[in-house]
Amino acid sequence: MISGNRVAVVRQEPVYSVVGIRASVAQAMDGLRLSWRDVVFPGAKVVLKPNFIRQSHTHRAGEWEAIITHGSLVEAVAREVAEAMGGEGTITVADGPQTDSDCESICARVGIDTLIRALTKDYPRLTCQFVDLRREVWEVRDGVVVQRRRLADAPGGYTEIDLGRASSLEGKTGPFYGADYDTRFTQGHHLPGRHRYLLARLALDADLFVNLPKLKTHKKVGITISLKNLVGINGDKNYLPHFSMGPPNQGGDESPYVGIGAAIRSRSIHAFKQAMIRFPSAGRHLGPLVRRAGAHMFGRTEAVIRSGNWHGNDTAWRMVLDLNAALFHYDGCGRRRERPAQYLSIVDGIIAGEGDGPMEADAKPCGLLLAGTNPVAVDLVGATLMGFDWRRIPMIREAFSLKGLPLVDFLPEDVKAVPELGKPFQFRPHFGWVGHIEAHP
After folding, report:
1. What average pLDDT does range 55-74 have in this prediction?
2. Which range of residues forms the domain containing residue 233?
3. What is the pLDDT of residue 1?
4. Mean pLDDT, residues 268-272
5. Position 339 confidence tier, pLDDT thresholds 50, 70, 90
6. Count of domains in the chain?
7. Would residue 298 count as lying in a domain?
8. pTM for the complete prediction?
9. Average pLDDT, integer, range 96-110
10. Are 356 and 302 in contact (CB under 8 A)?
11. How far apart, in Å, are the Cα atoms of 398 and each of 197, 319, 322, 401, 407?
12. Which of the residues 125, 165, 209, 351 has an alpha carbon 20 to 30 A from that of 403?
């Protein structure tokens, strides 16, 4: 089990600077009654896991500070870790962005190469690197995958972990849809008594795992903070069930719509995706045209709820809790840990994201930084500060009920914000969650 019911809440001006962020990080560590030497040692292997989902807002290429973890937080934490290790050890900044994202652009925006050069110069005995945890990247046109490119495996490779009947997905009705057109692949990894995930071994083997999530709304699970950020340590996103296909009256959670129109829409979309698997070369030319025709007939994703992008999604939150259970309870060899992983979450809410997150979020300047040693406690406090009722967010609420692979050893009422919670912000939810997540006075 993972202790840590204490969550530090730091407020500053909503401006990014390494000096200002380092001061806020130091204040957060004081609030947790921790020093960096309490959690790291010379020669340690440390993984910093930011939220690098995409290089920018999907439709506004110049906007990115509300979408990804800012480089000043990555740098501030990396320097604190390097000093605590006495300049000796390994710091790996690692994430698996969305499969069609441009990792080079992300790294350029947040200054990863500059950071690595500076740390290597300042600490000659320190190994510092960035690792893209994805095994494949895609070229997407008009929402259709037209080309795929295999990447080299992450250092150390990947470990397939089967949570079996301890999975939060056990008993959940499929068929599940993952991240790709091949639904049979996802369904093959999630059957009664079998729930497999493919995690980067460097994350599982880290002496210290530092989660550096962004504070944002999310279309499938309500919010994305610490818990949801672990999606990025899975090497193949098609292992991850995103929703159950079909309407609610047939056991699915794809959308809230029922009736013949919803059935036709769902079957048409999935038939198109299956055709893309069978005839990939034709799909490169015809796929975007079919996609545009479908948007004209059924409405665009930005306006119509589909693909599990709503409060009734009863699948994605289970997958998220599974990933956290895997990190905390299994090592890089796939064996049960004798003790939990050393973990710290430091949340970038300086410029947060509201509305249609995670990739179409609008900037919400908050000047907020959160920190804790338990992701459930951190996310409970984060949701409350966003103006949401955490009890209406299954990903958080159900985390307190896990038995076989628990994530908490405390009750919700034991969570303590320090120095105090303070006045919450009123975040606008994703449109599929409006009216179902907000806290009411």
Report:
1. 97
2. 6-167+195-243+308-418
3. 43
4. 63
5. confident
6. 1
7. no
8. 0.93
9. 97
10. yes
11. 20, 12, 12, 5, 10
12. 209
Q: What's the rounded Cα separation, in Å, for the pair 314 and 318?
A: 7
Q: Is residue 297 part of a domain?
A: no
How far lies 111's CA from each of 108, 118, 342, in Å? 5, 11, 27
Q: How far apart are CA 349 and CA 215, in angstroms?
A: 5
Q: Which of 369, 73, 354, 315 shows the shortest CA–CA distance to 216?
A: 354
Record the tokens describing residue 66, joined without a space. 């509300």
The CATH number of residue 128's host domain is: 3.40.50.11440
> Going by DSSP bridges, is the β-strand pair 136-141/126-132 parallel, antiparallel, or unpaired?
unpaired
Written as six digits, the tokens of 228 are 């949801």
Condensed to tens digits (0 to 9), the pLDDT of residues 114-146 reads: 999 999 999 999 999 999 999 999 998 877 888
Q: CA 58, CA 64: separation in Å to the nearest integer?
A: 9
Is 23 inside any structural domain?
yes
Alpha carbons 431 and 427: distance in angstroms, whole number? 12
CA nearest to 91, candidates 100, 107, 80, 102: 80
Q: Within a domain: residue 284?
A: no
